[in-house]
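hiii, so i know i said id send this last week but things got crazy w the move. better late than never?? heres the sequnce for the chain we talked about at the cafe, plus the structure i predicted for it. fair warning i was half asleep when i ran it
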Amino acid sequence: MIKRNLLMAGLAAAALGFGALGAQAAIELHNTVTGEPLNLDDAGPEGRDTEAFKAFLETGKNPYNKEPNCLANGEQLFLSMCSGCHGHVAEGKIGPGLNDNYWTYPDNNTDKGLFETIFGGASGQMGPMYGAVNPDQMLQIMSWVRHLYKDGPEDAKWLEEAEKANFKPYDGHSPAPKPDLAKTPEACKPSE
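okay and structure toks below
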């Protein structure tokens, strides 16, 4: 009887947790390695109430991919949190390269898949990043990583058809364009 009650309590808690996530997200987010649902509450509240993150949860698309004013902050976040393993222009070091059309985890070719890997971690030395950067910052980093892409647009699932037609691969050395602070979303402004 005790085991049955514990099982029922566990199922109820799981249903509540899923319901809370389901109320926030139209997409389902899963751990890249285990496939288990990601718990966005692991990240804390900061960076979860931005318009960009809310749009991402509805569509699975990163709105910052179309916001050049966020690239500079994404670049700084990438350089401080990611480049030690992935290289300064995501060419790969002890972690895999992120600027070409080969993905260790094929779903990383989508915004949803790349977010899942950053948030929940992967195999090897890539641990969950929700304790180091908030979800909105993860989207900014992802936008910078997409900016660094150097291969052909035909393999870039995150690009829409019109974007593929105008795509120019990263030249391998240019810094992020200087943002127009009057047009920069608040979440992308550098902290003081």
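btw The chain has a mean pLDDT of 89. thought thatd interest u
miss u guys!!
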